[in-house]
Each structure stands twice: as structure tokens, then as C-alpha cells.
Amino acid sequence: MIQSRLDQGWVSDESFVPITQLPEAELSFIEDLMEEIPGLTYRLDAGRVYPFGSSVAHLTGYVRQITAEQLEDREGLGYDSQSIVGQTGLEAAQEERLRGYIGAELITRGADGSRKATLAETEAEDGEDLYLTINMDIQEEIVRQLDNQPGTAVLSTQKLGKHSLLLVRQVMIQISWL
Length: 178
What we know:
Strand content: 15-25%
Shape: extended
Number of strands: 7
Helix content: 10-25%
Largest sheet: 3 strands, mixed
CATH architecture of the largest domain: Alpha-Beta Complex
Structural class: alpha+beta
Low-confidence stretches: 165-178
Distance between the termini: 52 Å
């Protein structure tokens, strides 16, 4: 796999060739590997964190660059052709809350390239954080029981007063306490 990525036509000796993505928590592991493997490097990228992967992927959804159709539908709402938008799951349903706004600065430079003046500036703005409460032991057991196939599961207990909703493989699951 690594060699096939390095053999791509666009790769030169100076190219950064992504091999895999790892969470920031693995940074010390990568730095240790860099001491052992010549030429290995990394780049930190901003992005979403999906800590439970495929167990809740259908619930969290994913983001990608906006499509032409999505851009047309969002005309006048501050999106451009480089915007990253929610495509499915909570990423799509909560797009307006989760999205941030890119900052920008318009400056002038002198003939020597030095910065002269700021003509206009817009502060970057982070989107909201979204917190969920999901019993991952139950969620992962349901996924295991369904053998990663679409399906529905209902969990009932004999406790009064509360009920919740979960999704498994794009099918609503109702959890009730009776």
C-alpha cells in the first residue's frame, strides 16, 4: 500500500504523500517512529473527530467538500466552492450549528513584500460543539448482534419515566424504560 502511494505520478522527492490518518492522541507514537524510519513525517490537519468509528458512523455522519447542487441550494448563506458541509447523519442535520466561519484578512504590501496595512478583516468563528450521550456498550453490542447488517433493535427495561432514541444502521431504535 505504501509503495503504491509513493509510485503515483504526481509524487516528487519534495512531496508530502499521505499514507494514513491518525488521531492526535497518537502523535507521540508517530514521533517515535520518525526516529526509526528515515523520511517519515506528519502534518496536523484540522478536522472532525469520530471516536467510535463505524459503530456510530450512521448516527454521526460525515463531512466533505460542498457539491455544486448543495452550493446552489445554500446561495446567500456564506458558503463557497471550498466549503466543507455535513452530508449525512448529525453532520447534515446539525450543519448550521456545527459549521464555523473562515476568517479573512485583506492587506496591502509594499514593493519589498513587507506588510503595509490591513484594509479589512473578518474573524474566524468556530461552530458549536455537539455532545451526545450514547451507551457505547449497548450500541456496539447491537451492531455486533446485527453482524453489521441493517436492522432494528428495541431495548426495554423496567425503570419508570424515561425513553431515548438511537439509530442503528439508519434505522430508528427506541429505547424505553417502562
